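note to self: dont lose this again. the chain is below, predicted strucutre after it. 356 aa total, dont forget to put it in the shared folder this time
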Amino acid sequence: MMATKAEIIIPQSAEDISPSWVQLVLQKELPGIIITDVDVKGPINKGEGYMSNIIAFDAVGTRNGTSQHYSLVAKMTDFNCPFTEIKEWKKETHIKMETRKLRFYSDVVPELLSVAIPGTERESKPGNIDDQNDPPTDSLFLPKCYFAATDPSSMVSVRVMENLKSQGFSIKPNRQSLSRAEMMLAAGALAQLHGLSHLVELRSGKPLSEKYDWIKTTSRVWIDAQSSLYRDGVKEFAAAFPKKADLTGFLEKLDPYREILDLEEDPRLKVLCHTDSWINNIMIKFDGDVPTEVRLVDWQTPTYNPPTIDLTLLFLCNTSWDVFHNYRDDILAHYHHILQETLGTGESSGLKSWNS
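---
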């Protein structure tokens, strides 16, 4: 294992996840923690999280004389390994995207949490799908990260995070679309992100794109890759339905991802956007059949854009026609409610008058 500037070594494999290492990782957030044992479970289902090897492990110990148990994951990325899932992405792109994710957790998240108004992280309660006036209650929108760093010499990065799967969170199987209640939770999570990032900008006095110069208005590499996948899908559609030439032609002209590239000069108010809130990056927790909490994961493509970017992609990538047609206004109203709640009162804000 190699040392980092923070003097916490970067594990090269699952065998390097030891009690002493886990104790060092947790000590910043949990002073006084003593880890006595670590049980490495091994790789877990990573969906399409192909950029990292996700190792689950349990850590037990004591803190202030009380027994403690932590269910965690180490997301380890070896930049020397071939990156073949999307052929358009070169190794340098892989490194850049992983670096953005690390910097998001190490630089941006602490600032987002520092401006969170007490009560932003709320108790989760089951949402009543049939009662349109009683939407699900949101919790803070992202998983807890205890440590994020890269070892330049070995080209290995690691993030130690809470194990959402052990808490009952999961992605929808087989890319199923989100229900009304699930969409409201996801929209609320985006509202928290947008609101907190706007508060950071207000209090720092300069745009986030200047404060964090690695966050761009557009991620051209990501857009190019997604656009390529979209065009491949259109070709598959054309081959499967040769008599639908008119529809194929419309789809070829549509390519929504290319439209995002026109946002560089957009005069509208901008916030920190997830920019990739599709079904595999939205983890949902249920109480029986009722969705109660959402976490947004995979933060390799944060951008500085109008809030509508995230909302458009949320609807485009995750809803059925029924949910979009019948509940769009309810979902947007819930987004606006959580946005106002996140911003709080007495804060001069252009977002407050922003109409979803």
